[in-house]
User: Fold eCIS core domain-containing protein from Rhodanobacter lindaniclasticus.
Amino acid sequence: MLQSSGEPLDPRTRTAMESGFGQDFSHVRVHRDSAAAESAHAVSALAYTVGHDVVFARGQYAPGTTMGRHLIAHELAHTVQQTHLPDVPVGVSDPGSALERQADHAADRVVSGRPVGALPRARVPLIARELDTRDMTASDGGIDHVTREVTPGKCALAPETRTSTSGDITASTAFLQLDLCHGSTAGQVRGEVDYGDALKQAGQAVGKLLSNAASGQGSQQALGTFADDLKQLQPGAKIRMNLQASDVFKLDLTGTGNASVAGGATGKATARAEFDTGPVNLVVEGSVAGGNQQQTSYDVTVSIEFGRRRLQAPDCRACQCTDPKISFACSHVPPKGARPPAPPPSAAKPTRYIPYFFKYAETAPTPNKAMQTLSDNGLQEAVNLLLGGYRIARIEGSASPEGPEKKERGSFKNNTVLAKARAEQGKRLLDERIKKNLDGLMIMRSEPLKQALAASYPVVGRAELFGTDASGKEVADPALMSHLRDKLAAPAEGQPDPLAQEHVIGAGLSVDAQSADQADVDAFRTGRRGDRRLSRDERLQAIYEPLRRALIVLEPPPQPPPDLRLSQKDIENVIGAPVDCTDKNKALFANVPIAKPFEGECKAPGKQGGSSK
Assistant:
């Protein structure tokens, strides 16, 4: 699934979910990085769960929202359903399955503050998904899955200039208020005049001051310019102005102009500027007096004040967002009857039996040329099987149940000693063949043969095969023919063949060995080879020869673990094959709200703040 180990649930979410489910979620791991988002997108899921791992698509892990908590609870329900299963999935859950419905029901209860009862357990580990998907029946009877994917619009705060004016003019007085906001500079002008053009002049003076301050003009220069403008006002005009800028610069100005009794004009302007530099405030107070009948005078006072609270800069910015991008992905799941049957599991490799045949009463190779060829080919086949991952389980020697071949050979009887010697000779011959093959192998391929040479395994003698009666007593030579004819007769249907049980014939032998040994067994049982009738001794020799042997038993390599990866066809049968979305498909989402259409510095297009005073 994913390479990262994930992270635990945050404490607040874990406490709430454990209370609702009555479960311990300390083992749950949340994956919400970019790799997790890609993984969730690959299975068209808002989130999916495998065992104790919960994987979220981009922006879907949102415990601070109701929808986010519902999604988390839904996935935690799947961890409870799969708690007793291995973490390797064998498939993908059906969105309409009982397990998905139960997870939804559990999430509804948790989000509403009600406890969840016992959840049924899943029978096999699956990828359990929560999709932003709608389904509709297709024309062929299958199902169209329609998934809507929303890439949220990116939002950021940007400066915005906003101005508004209000006023009232009567026969004797006029009132004006002007508000200005640009970026993080805000101001307000309020004026009262007794008549006519003074209103216009006041607005022009204040507007000029705002423009100077917003353009970065020095505060002293801005004050001086404004003071000069105030002196030019018509008699009776009163202006009050408040300005606050982004560098936490606050300016309070009051200007008043009065008419002189002599008909001349006098003007007086006072100003107070406040510069907040943190815990220290620098206060500058200035006044300007003068007129056409007076000498102009200036007065400036500077003081420092400590411990003043820093003023908060105004926020006159607007939230500007790009449009969210909405895309649709559609897949078509064929009708169930149209799905091909699953392929059968691969068959396990069989245990193999490699015989090496010997001469009567000896550990020398058999004089039978055909059987010599079988023995030699068998040794090479054993080496090839070892290279293919087989291992030597044991080597066992055996003898045929015959007495002395001729009277002049004395009183010899086949026995355990001979069987053991044949097993040991079989091991020596196999080791020699392995060493011979090692000389021509590349180093990377030689390791299995080196391991076979170093391996320890049983090398045992089986004594005589089929030479005892039901009580375990050895059968005397004169009675052997009758005894073997009964013991080794062809079995009735459904009954085991004793010769196959001892791997003289049957499964596990090479094709050539099966054919040759079966021909000998048939000759003994029928008393004929082709059209020729066999004598008693010929029949006995036919069965004795395949029993004079060392049998090399090779166990197959362990079967590889099942490939739990889903094929493309398996995936398509669950989540469907990709198809183009039609207008009907998209219409399924016509009334479905978008959970998170925007993201970034602010949440939605529009005003973030207004002018501050």
Summary: Residues 7-131 form one domain.
